[in-house]
TrEMBL record:
Gene Ontology MF, one: L-aspartate oxidase activity
Protein name stated in the entry: L-aspartate oxidase
Keyword Flavoprotein: yes
Domain Fumarate reductase/succinate dehydrogenase flavoprotein-like C-terminal: 441-529
GO cellular component, one term: cytoplasm
Stored PANTHER family: L-ASPARTATE OXIDASE, L-ASPARTATE OXIDASE, CHLOROPLASTIC
Needed cofactors: FAD
Major localization class: cytoplasm
SUPFAM superfamilies associated with the record: FAD/NAD(P)-binding domain, Succinate dehydrogenase/fumarate reductase flavoprotein C-terminal domain, Succinate dehydrogenase/fumarate reductase flavoprotein, catalytic domain
Domain of life: Bacteria
EC number: 1.4.3.16
């Protein structure tokens, strides 16, 4: 069903470039990993758009690290495991919570300016609390623009680094592998020309798959490219059924689905239904600070009960100055649409935000495809389990980015690797009769309606039936970006839906109305591998 390549090409028409390591993608995962690798090797970073266009750039809440007095890695581990609902890899979580604090200091060394505050003991890093955290351990920058500040600082370092070459506006098409299955680089398109970067190691840092859904907090570049190209190359994909829907994105006529950070609830904001009633205490003892999956389902339930399309987020009881200084980006954005955080309840609804699953890796970011690594949201390290703890994503990226750099350095010192020539593609290119944009919109609507916050066997089977209309497209190659993105989204959507149909229980970011309870028999991972099929692996 799945073609090995999505691009139609002839080897003689492709320009070849050599480097030590290629990093596909930017954001905190791509840039931080590239900087660490550049300490001993030459690196090329491929950017789908610009160097700073990524999910990281939109991250508002912050980065989690147990650095405060009264906090500890043990407490951070407990919170992470609780949110992950039994599917976390304990060893991966231990790595995250113990190595994260030092690497946050490394971000500061690299120029990131986190917010500080003053008290009787002097100046120290300002910390906030988010859902399912038992302590205030979230570092933030410029109030609610943490990701943008991290991206700014890392981009300065990357552009000044003589061992890093940045190639922008480059669409990564497919991973190139040897006959023995080792990854030997990536095929990409830039300015309508095809290029092959031949490398000793390849790092996927392509972000998530939010654009599988009609409503998402993600930027337009997150079209499941890394998931799909890894799958076509034989990598294992794990836990794709676990999609995190952020509970609060702006839902207002004429406005995009702008993220309204969980940090507002950390600073006391409450959720109200269309009748103005606060409802979260009836759903969970942590109320608005319950894990994201619980809050998202509660919001959907209230929307269904009241036949509304949104609920309200209310922080008007907090001082105006706190709201404006702590959340300047959100305040100014809402104001553009006539909504004032200090006086108005903000209409919000859940939207696709983060994929807990992804390309399966070990504790050093390496996949089952030798010399192929994955970092950030595209990866599945096991840290997040069935539901990611808020602000653990940025921490995961730097912790495992550093480990990837260590692993690559070790084998570059002991192995040279054999460069290979490009293979030949033999599939005939076919262009769909229907406009690809219409197909993409249909796919996104199918995923929202049938593979959303709440699922059933009937809805998932209906989704597979609808998506099945496009399955013949998977066996062909194409030559347009819009087609490539659609094939990648379709690949991820089919695998996500199949995984959700297989898991007959509810856990974390996966909820089945027909199987509303978690089951011990499902303490296992669902893994997909091309030409192998479905693999189940016990926790």
């Amino acid at each position: 069903m799945f073609s090995r390549f999505i691009a139609n090409f002839k080897a003689e028409d492709v320009t070849t470039h050599d480097t030590d390591v290629v990093v596909i993608g930017t954001g905190i995962a791509g840039m931080y990993t590239a900087l660490k690798i550049s300490e001993y090797a030459n690196v090329i970073i491929l950017c789908k758009k610009g160097l700073t266009e990524s999910n990281t750039n939109r991250a508002q809440g912050g980065i989690a690290a147990a650095i405060a007095e009264g906090d500890s890695p043990d407490l951070h581990r407990e919170d992470t495991m609780m949110a992950g609902a039994g599917l976390n890899d304990l060893a991966a979580v231990e790595v995250l919570v113990n190595e994260g604090p030092d690497l946050v200091n490394d971000l500061i060394r690299l120029g990131t300016q986190f917010d500080t505050e003053h008290d009787a003991e002097g100046e120290h890093l300002a910390l906030t609390r988010e859902g399912a955290h038992s302590r205030r351990r979230i570092l933030h920058a410029n109030g609610d623009a943490t990701g943008a500040e991290i991206v700014r600082a890392l981009a300065v370092q990357v552009r000044q680094n003589p061992r890093i070459e940045v190639i922008e506006d480059a669409f990564a098409l497919d991973l190139i592998t040897s006959e023995h299955g080792s990854c030997k680089g990536v095929l990409y398109q830039k300015d309508k020309a095809l290029h092959y970067i031949r490398s000793q190691a390849t790092v996927l840092a392509t972000g998530g798959a939010g654009n599988m859904y009609r409503y998402t907090s993600n930027p337009g570049v997150t079209t499941a490219d890394g998931f799909a190209m890894a799958y076509r190359a034989g990598a294992k994909l794990q836990d794709l059924e676990f999609i995190q829907f952020h509970p609060t994105t702006l839902n207002y006529p004429g406005a995009p689905r702008f993220l309204i950070s969980e940090a507002l609830r950390g600073e006391g904001a409450v959720l109200r239904n269309i009748a103005g009633e606060r409802f979260m205490p009836a759903y969970h003892e942590l109320a608005e600070l319950a894990p994201r999956d619980i809050v998202a389902r509660a919001i959907v339930s209230e929307i269904e009960k009241t036949k509304a399309t949104f609920i309200y987020l209310d922080i008007t009881h907090q001082p105006d100055e706190l709201i404006k200084s702590r959340f300047p980006t959100i305040y100014e954005f809402c104001l553009q649409y006539g909504l004032d955080l200090t006086t108005d309840w903000i209409p919000v609804a859940p939207a696709a935000h983060y994929v807990m699953g992804g390309v399966k890796t070990d504790l050093y970011g390496e996949t089952n495809v030798r010399r192929l690594f994955a970092c950030g949201e595209v990866s599945c390290t096991g840290v997040h389990g069935a539901n990611r703890l808020a602000s653990n994503s940025l921490s995961e990226a730097i912790v495992f980015g550093k480990r990837i750099a260590e692993r690559i350095e070790a084998f570059l010192q002991t192995e040279t690797g054999e460069f290979i020539l490009l293979p030949k593609t033999e599939k005939v290119m076919k262009s769909p009769i229907e406009k690809i944009d219409n197909r993409r919109l249909h796919l996104q609507k199918v995923m929202v309606r049938h593979v959303g916050v709440k699922r059933t066997r009937d809805s998932l089977e209906r989704a597979l039936s609808e998506l099945g209309k496009y399955v013949p497209m998977l066996s062909h190659t194409y030559n347009k970006k819009s087609d490539w993105e659609f094939i990648n989204l379709l690949t991820a959507a089919i695998l996500t839906t199949q995984a959700a149909l297989l898991r007959e229980e509810s856990r974390g970011g996966h909820f089945r109305n027909d199987f509303p309870k978690a089951k011990d028999s499902w303490l296992k991972h669902t893994i997909f591998q091309k030409d192998v099929g479905v693999i189940e692996e016990r926790c």
